[in-house]
Specification:
Elements: H1 2-14, H2 16-40, H3 44-56, H4 58-62, H5 72-105, H6 108-113, H7 121-147, H8 152-179, H9 183-206, E1 209-210, E2 217-218, H10 227-232, H11 244-264, H12 289-328, H13 330-342, H14 345-378, H15 380-385, H16 391-424, H17 429-458, H18 463-480, H19 488-491, E3 501-502, E4 507-508, H20 512-530
Antiparallel strand pairs: 1-2, 3-4
Helix pairs in contact: 1-7, 2-5, 2-7, 3-13, 5-7, 5-8, 5-9, 7-8, 8-9, 8-11, 9-12, 12-13, 12-14, 12-16, 14-16, 14-17, 14-18, 16-17, 16-20, 17-18, 17-20
Length: 539
Amino acid sequence: MTGAAALLRQRLRRDGLQLVLWVGGVAALTFGTFAGVADTFGTEQERAALVAVALANPVILVFRGLPSGTGEGAFLIFLSLPFLVLLVALMSAFLAVRHTRGDEEVGRTELVGSTPAGRWAPFWATVAHGAIANVAAGAAAAAALIAAGQDAAGSALAGAAIAGAGTVFLGVGLLAAQLVRSARAANSISVGVIVGSFVVAGVGNAVGTPSDDLTRMESSWLAWLSPFAWAENTRPLSDDDPGPLLLSTAVAALLVGAAALVQARRDVGEGALAERAGRARAGRVLSSMPGLVWRLSAGSILAWAVGAAVVGALSATLGSLVAQVGTDNPQIAAILERLAAEGSIDQGVLVTFFVMVGVLAACFGVQTIMRARQEEVHGTAESTLATPVARAAWLRAFLSVAGAGILLVCAAAVGGACLALAITGGSSSLASDALVTGAGQAVAASVFVAAAALVFVIVPRATILLGWGIVVAAAALALFGTIFGLPTEVVAISPFAATPVPGPDDVDPNGLWWMLPSAAAGAAASLALMRRRELAAGG
């Protein structure tokens, strides 16, 4: 294990800045949520009113957490815990893939394996590295809660719940890296599992059982299939139940063990899942640069589109669930009547869910631009540009596929919503609302593609960090801006919050006037600058 210890020290130095940013983001989100709660929901009556509305409108629970009371600490956990777990889950999965399959792709793992450190040093160094990162993130969240004046024991349990869930997704990343031959595919699998777990926990909480006084929700059996729900059901700063942490620990150990078992039985550079043999001759599609990029991105487009279709279907069906909940509880029925007087509940549910569609589409678009950076780092871009393909045409192919993929992802969401409406007999007007909202989110996602392309051209080595960073920051602003007490004008800076919104009689174009020109100008500028840029092959 001496080799693993030396490798771990090297990786901690190498990833120092990234870990500081991830852990600092967890602490900032925790303390920022507290500040927003103190300003906006300073009294128990205000907190109780919001919890009652959340229990009456299950869509809120899909994008928040599990209500456990109206105390300040419990309310803070309700608003922030799922997103803290989401941050740590992404950090853990990316870390696992980067230091296993990623290093294997570029040859580092084989070099280390040829030394006295042996083949297993990188694997166990990654496990230790991920565990340290998760403990640091959990400790940062706990420290932020204590600094906010919350109970030390409950704060520590919240940190442990975050770290435990993150360790589960560390195991997911490790296992995904053993199954496929590329870091790109492993990251896609990991993100799919994370997003799926987030949605399963949210829907499982939404269909749970509310308390008679509308201050708590008991998760349904569905939620217990997700590590997000295990963290939430520890109910920090309320019941303080450490029991669900045993689930996180057991599943994390099982996943790490499975990953180790697969590694012991495969060759370096190979994956446990056999790849389909390619054709002897390339088809016509591969004779063009856009066709090549489309072929490289086809699997990702399918995965993101399937996820968007599921979200779209949920957006059109949970509205009826809201009404069903109201029939079982008179207090909820009264709240629903008040909400209905302010606007269509079904419409509000659909618009809220399509924010997630916009995030999924933006993730695909940014991922496609990152693929251009990976082609550059791995040297394949140089081979391509040695042909008559010009630099601008090469980048234009990635931009074109990113735009087409965004349209397909949003169209899949609209199709899922329309199919769900047809099956459930929902209002036909919601289909047009889904079309308007989906189109708006496609425009918002295009803004991120243009921004990522500019970063790729101007600061290529920061493409991955800034590419994901702007998506995460914009999503956090759209989802948490009002909780932080930020003005509506500030929240609207996020493209996800500036999309056209269908109303009872017309459509509010919102920020469409600036998003369309920004996306077009950013794409044009990146193409113009690419003509003069030299290749930057460094990692």
